[in-house]
Amino acid sequence: MMKLYNFEISGNCYKIRLLLSLLGIEHELVPVDLRQGENFEPALLKLNPRAQIPVLDDDGTIIWDSSAILTYLARQYGGERWLPTDPLGMAEVVQWLAVSENEILYGLARARAIKLMNKPWNPEECRKLGEQALEVVEQQLAKSSWLAGHTITIADIACYPYIGLSGDGGFSLDPYPAIRQWMARIETQPGYITMPGLMRVGEG
Ligand SMILES: N[C@@H](CCC(=O)N[C@@H](CS)C(=O)NCC(=O)O)C(=O)O
Predict the structure, then answer these.
(1) How confident is the model over 151-204, as pLDDT tens digits?
(2) Where is the GST C-terminal domain (predicted)?
(3) Domain boundaries, the chain
(4) Long-range contacts made by residues 94-99, C-beta under 8 angstroms, separation at least 24?
């Protein structure tokens, strides 16, 4: 069975849990407690030399990095829907994967990790990058229901978790109406699952 090396409060791991659930793929979660440093255990380092999770094991095929795992799952199990194959459609998805790995990670995710995990990053820098992330996503969603193309794709799945968790890092989504409407659209997808601490806009 497919295995996901997972930590419940990690937004990067939630990206993968969410896509697996939306795709209806049965899987086993292998817990890796980052607070206990379990990501540095030899068995995990053998799978991912970066000592990070998520890591996916699909019947012996090992993939690390959330964007890479989303790409693999979309292509292998999602048909055209989650990652288009036409050059422009694919490039548009990759643009937003890049945002998820830059402003969203270094801004929103790190601001949260400072608060929850006592990570030693600069709060001012995180705040600035986090606000840039929210601005750029809001601008796109004011023009379009989804980040890339006309349907939900892995671009949305990659950007959604740390935006929904941004309250933990001290951000407010009040100034971002298009983001809140987009979150409500994601919440109504068949197979949607949430995670601890995630803001649910559809619940009122
Ligand atoms: N770019 C990587 C980042 C993964 C990452 O930062 N994972 C965190 C958990 S969210 C981790 O494993 N951190 C290890 C640590 O805290 O030592 C991805 O998208 O998978």
Answers:
(1) 999 999 999 999 999 999 999 999 999 999 999 999 999 999 999 999 999 864
(2) 86-204
(3) 2-77, 87-187
(4) 95/148, 95/155, 96/147, 96/148, 96/155, 96/156, 96/158, 96/159, 97/67, 97/70, 97/71, 97/154, 97/155, 97/158, 99/133, 99/136, 99/137, 99/159
